[in-house]
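Example record for the data management plan.
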Amino acid sequence: MWEEKSGSLIKDFKCKGFNQAVEFVNRIKDAANAANHHPDLLIHGYSNVEVRLTTHSEASTVTDKDHALAKTIDEIYLSMAS
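Corresponding structural encoding:
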């Protein structure tokens, strides 16, 4: 579940290992470029990916752009799990 905190949507995703975490980040990169909306991404604990979404052009608040990309990121994650 995405958490709204300090003007950002935040979610931590557990991957099966480092390679899958990197692949997940790369897929997020492609979706973010297509949406022209770029999240902060952090790989930590070698297999976890933290995603932070905020709209910097809107005074670092959460907007519909963030919710739309969050939905896309969830779909990417689910497609990798199957």
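Summary line stored alongside the record: The helical segments are 18-35, 64-81.
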